[in-house]
Design a protein that fits this description.
Low-confidence stretches: 5-19, 21-31, 40-47
Strand content: 5-15%
Helix content: 25-40%
Number of helices: 13
Structural class: alpha/beta
Shape: globular
Radius of gyration: 24 Å
Largest sheet: 6 strands, mixed
Distance between the termini: 62 Å
Order of helices and strands: HHHEHHHEHEHHEHHEEHH
Length: 330
Amino acid sequence: MVAAPSKCRPSAAALVVAPPAAARRRLRCRCCEDTLGVPRRRLQQAAAPAPHLAPAAPAPPPRPRRIVLVRHGQSEGNVDEAAYTRVPDPRIGLTAQGWRDADDCGRRLRDLFSQDGDDWKVYFYVSPYRRSLETLRGIGHAFEPHRIVGVREEPRLREQDFGNFQDREQMRLEKEIRLRYGRFFYRFPNGESAADVYDRITGFRETLLADIDIGRFHPPGTTTTGDMNIVLVSHGLTLRVFLMRWYNWTVRQFEGLENLANGGALVMQTGEGGRYSLLVHHTADELRVFGLTEEMLQDQMWQKTARPGELNHRFMTNGQSFFHPFTTIY
């Protein structure tokens, strides 16, 4: 007969199965902006025999001043949908107007970044589709080489997959069906839904936060680079999904958003407390045109002054408005 384990002391089996407390702490995940920049070496401090002798945790790298979302310039597919029947989507290039869109966007971005003085730099993430790569090349004309810290081709920023070689009439029918079914959940045959894009953008977002956390944008041997600007060169729906994921917008809120114009840019900029807000650079009227509701604008106003680690409990994704009897579900 096996004696029952003591209430005052764990059994031998429990000691074998349960990982030590330090190991459990090491398994904790960090998955959102609310923890961005929190020092990771607390375990060393806790284990030090004399806290007053323990070395101070290194300061986290400064956050980039801006994250700028850029839609590619006008493409051959934007002016002729039949192009998709002849050319694979990833190989659709820019029109002459699209190259002008890219050049104009580059000049606007340079003017924006130069407002901070002379100690600023830029890092690009770009979709591997031809029209995005060509847009980046056009944007790059506005920047001296020493301003560009790096460029990373990022497949997760690609366009929503509408299938392989597209049948023009079939695509017209599919898009009509999508309007009835819902833009977020409808999956194109042999392609993706916006919900599928959301899943891969979630992974990219975690990569971006990790890159910020480890100082990816700091040249070797430096501790600060002044004002750093991150630019994502991508596609209309992909950028809308990125904002949805970053700000925890609902499906209904996402479906009210409009595409950026070709070569258009949307600026997420740090506010007083260090969080990114669209209202630091843009006006409320500009964001209303993009599709933000009054509640979303109120949250952006909160983002302007809040600090990382704080939560906006009044925003609908955290609040009681889900249960309001007059709230429309669909």
